[in-house]
Amino acid sequence: MSKLDRIDKAKLPKHLAVIMDGNGRWAKKHGLFRTKGHESGTKAVKEIVEGAAELGIPFLTLYAFSTENWNRPKLEVQTLMKLLVSSLKKEVETLQKNNIRLGAIGALNDLPSKARAELNEVIEATKDNERMTLTLALSYGSREEITKTIKEISSKVKNNIISIEEIDEDVINKHLYTLNLPDVDLLIRTSGEQRISNFLLWQIAYAELYFTEVLWPDFRKEHLLEAILNYQNRERRFGKTSEQLN
Ligand code: IPE
Ligand code: IPE
Ligand code: MG
């Protein structure tokens, strides 16, 4: 049986999140500049977006640029921002064809105005698509997100819009960038690194973690299927005992 046939369509992760890592090492391995690694990474983005949509995964979130990535060499940051604009221009058609809606999370005001404008354009153009929601994490950092959330809620308490007693997990969820997304079920990180790097700390509380040695530019549908199969063989207990589940 092929990998695709072995996948249980009733047990797909509802929300898949991916830390796309290893572009730089991929480039180095091939004797190329780091920027070439980022360029090649866009092919993998297309693969996973189409692959996830074909499978029927409703929410896909991709970590494309972290708050800490601003500290990279200026030229690399510039290249990444240019690549974002050109990819959005190029792939808006792919999104429309596949009925995919685009969203973005992060400190988006920190993006260059050109990138922000292009992003908003594609978000607007795809807003009625309903097969899958693709969310790009851009200038995203979980600690920044949580700090922002605390400020917003505190200000509402101060202005008597809500009381301290009313603050619960639901209120917090509604102030995160991810307010319209369910909790993450499966988190994939490529390139062999086994860390979270400030990605969706609150939202991955009960996510299954999957690490693969594959460098991001080499990531293909085949690898996505492998990750999903691995996920489907796990028992998610959410604090309960195995007996309680069965
Ligand atoms: C991931 O690849 C892309 C971004 C973080 C923008 P890297 O650029 O981090 O690649 P490595 O980790 O140096 O190999
Ligand atoms: C995490 O990758 C951010 C993205 C994939 C966008 P990094 O390569 O920046 O992570 P660290 O710094 O190695 O942990
Ligand atoms: Mg990296």
Defining traits:
246 residues; alpha/beta; Undecaprenyl pyrophosphate synthetase; six-stranded parallel sheet; 9 helices; 6 strands; 15% strand; binds 3-methylbut-3-enyl trihydrogen diphosphate; binds magnesium ion
Any chance you could write out the topology, listing elements then pairs?
Blueprint (H helix, E strand, L loop, with lengths): L2 H4 L8 E5 L3 H7 L4 H22 L3 E8 L7 H24 L2 E6 L7 H13 L6 E9 L1 H17 L10 H7 L10 E4 L18 E4 L9 H12 L9 H4 L1
Parallel strand pairs: 1-2, 1-5, 2-4, 3-4, 5-6
Helix pairs in contact: 2-3, 3-4, 4-5
The protein binds 3-methylbut-3-enyl trihydrogen diphosphate (2 copies) and magnesium ion.
Briefly summarize what is shown.
By secondary structure, the chain is α/β, with parallel strands linked by helices.
What this model shows, in words?
It is a single chain. The protein is an alpha/beta fold and 246 residues long. It has one domain: 3-Layer(aba) Sandwich (Undecaprenyl pyrophosphate synthetase). The chain is built from 9 helices and 6 strands, in the order αβααβαβαβααββαα. The chain has a 6-stranded parallel beta sheet, with helices on both faces. Helix 2 crosses helix 3, helix 3 runs parallel beside helix 4 and helix 4 packs parallel to helix 5. The longest helix is centred in the middle third of the chain and has 24 residues. It is globular, with a radius of gyration of 19 Å. The mean pLDDT is 98. The site of one 3-methylbut-3-enyl trihydrogen diphosphate (IPE) has 11 residues, from strand 2. One 3-methylbut-3-enyl trihydrogen diphosphate binds next to strand 2.
